[in-house]
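User: Good morning. I'm curious how adenine would be positioned relative to this chain. Could you predict the structure with it bound?
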Amino acid sequence: MHLEFDILTLFPEMVEGFFASSMLARGQRNGLIDIRTHQLRDWTTDKHNKTDELPYGGGAGMVMKPEPIFAAVEQLRKPQTKVVYMAPDGVPLSSQLARELVKEEHLIILSGHYEGVDQRVRDELVDLEVSIGDYVLTNGTLAAAVVIDCVSRFIPGFLGDEKSLTEESFMSTLLGFPQYTRPADFRGMRVPEVLLSGDHAAIAKWRHEQQIEKTRQLRPDLLDT
Ligand code: ADE
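Assistant: Good morning! Here's the predicted structure, ligand included:
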């Protein structure tokens, strides 16, 4: 499986370091993913490289012009490409959505700024609008990076240890269990005895109970479904 990402943004420098770090860097080295960031301004044709204008009908802020976005997407897209627009009013990102997106071959992720993009972009170019949560960021570039990180983890071989995918929170719709490592006694705070027991059945039972209790306290909504 191989997934290509093209990000269109006014601030590629916000995330270039992120993509050059840790697991995403390794995924690119191993040929599992390709991530390319693009400066949307490169597709402007006027001498001031203008990407935004005042909104028709008035109101606060600026709206991103359709021309450079259409030009960029038309240049980058292939027949199988899906175009994702990052927006606080999109569908919420979840593990389930990431598992759908990982089936794609090529995603162009468009990051908005100001009051967002001209509606014609959303109507004509965009296949899916995604939000990373009920809050508004100054622009969608970080949100695009979050989507890429979250989707890439589902590429077979990306994590190295596939067990981490099945054991993690949200796969079972329960929150995660507490993890401990050495030392067994740190400043008098002891690791729960069961984890030192070597009794795998008892450990599994304890972890499951911890997951249920933590979920009941922090995310009771997950237990209702
Ligand atoms: N752009 C601004 N806020 C956002 C959010 N919460 N999710 C996705 N894109 C955004």
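The first helix runs from residue 13 to 19. The mean pLDDT is 95.
Let me know if you'd like a different ligand tried.
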